[in-house]
Amino acid sequence: MAATLPPPRLLPSGDSAVTVEFSRTIDDAANQRVLALDKALAASAIDGITETVPTYRSLLVHYDPGKIGFDALSEKLLPIASQPLPPTAKARRWRIPVAYGGEHGIDIEDVAKALKTTPDDIVARHTAGDYCIAMIGFTPGWSYLSGLDESLQMSRRQNPRLLTPAGTIAIGGIQTGIQCLAGPSGWHLLGRTPVRTYQLHRNPTFLTEPGDRVTFFAIDHKTFEEQDRAAEAGEIIAEQVVT
Amino acid sequence: MSRLVVGSIGPASSVQDGGRPGAQRYGLTPSGAMDRMALAAANTLVGNEPFAATVEIGPFGATFTAKDGAVRVAIAGAPRNADIAGQAVAIDTSVTLKDGETLTLGFARGGAFTYLAIEGGIKGEPVFGSLAVNARAGLGSPYPRPLQADDELAVDAASGAPELRIELPKPSSDPIRVVLGPQDDEFDDANKALFLDSEWKISATSDRMGYRLEGPAIKHLHGHNIVSDGTVNGSIQVPGNGAPIALMMDRGTSGGYPKIATVITADVGRLAQTSAGTAFRFKAVSVAEAQDEAKKFAQAIRALPDRLRSADTVALNIEALSDANVAGHAVSAVDAGTWQVAAEP
Questions:
Q1: Is the CB of B230 less than 8 angstroms away from the CB of A198?
Q2: What are the pLDDT digits (tens) for B45-63?
């Protein structure tokens, strides 16, 4: 039997939530443990847990203090969180179309210049990536992806933009992401996808889950317009790859 | 079916209920009433479930007119002058608007949010079980935005039930209690003490997303960028400028600033009702104490029906009582006017 892993830190977030912290930095191994604990808790049905929120390095566990106290919950969480990782389950995989550059990716020229290469090369490197949804947060459906090519990692913009379009595909620091709703962003905008990771009156409302795998492929801007209309009507544009 | 028509209404007023927890893992914030006890008290007065949808009215005034029939309502939360055609309506009471009558509410006199509950609730299409407005995500029903003049709420016709008042404990002015952490180790002892021992004021630029705190700058040990992790109602994060922000009901589900402390569940509503400019302090308590208080808070909400009294038995001078309640908590129209609408950060 494999040895147990170093236990995470259990940090109270007030009286109704606990942060199960596996690392203080962004770390793929820690994120894998976050996602594994998230799955294990969903299966464990510990009475009193109301919802869980995975992030890069920690799992926030919301609970009802009327049903279970911090100490009792900690005792149940620690052994589960210290288990060796289960064999990697088959993750869902999405192929996401992206219209790169031009009006949809206004920063791609600057990114190429900063990295002393061409926009086409940026597209090639970005579409070559095999990404994992490390977390979803900030606004509905905003999927933060780990696995960005080291050569594409650059610091965020000095001046964040107050409004960036829905469907923006961007890079920032060591991450890339799918931004579902229009909103502020300090990342570099490479393109836009017609895929809605969140759409209110569609089944499912939320397309992506933390732990899903993602690859991107380039589409031309005309295809973007067509697919954007279909997506607006509720069609799921992303291709789910069966592995 | 009757209608309640909005006449005038200030910003920061929206339909709110118990909120929509359960989808924070997808980035959807729960929203919901800023003061859950006041929400529950207003609903209890008209026989609703405690967390049914109400109108959460910000510091400005508002008017509501009954159409197509009588409408029974109740107000609780921040005290303010209220009347129907010059006839005063007390806070923490129910009242029935006859067809065509208008309820006029003045500015909040201390506190920030008053809850207008309507017998039978507000008709709408729940999203994830809630009508609560989340302006950023475009959610909420019947309007996915703060209320505006001429908006109409579909409501039940008044039942004719006798009017009630509710006897609530006097609002506490004790320090706002917090549990330190989850990232209190990002601050040294001197800065933790500075946070706990200083007097704070709520900035006028606060909104349903977060309350900015004015006081001394709190310094971090290792800089202000941590890797994002999950937030809760009442998380107090400290950005680079050292001015803490208490995250409220429309918060982002994750945040990347160190969180020095978390307001306890039982005190989040009290913090929400602290007027801009009013001085207050924090006090650290243990998780165990905070959880005892959370249980008592939940029990107090369940027991609200025991506090109902017939409106006929009012033996108090309402005006003297409300003056006593708001002494020292006056908020000027100018202060109230600087409150931001959630949709305009």
A1: no
A2: 999 999 999 999 999 999 9
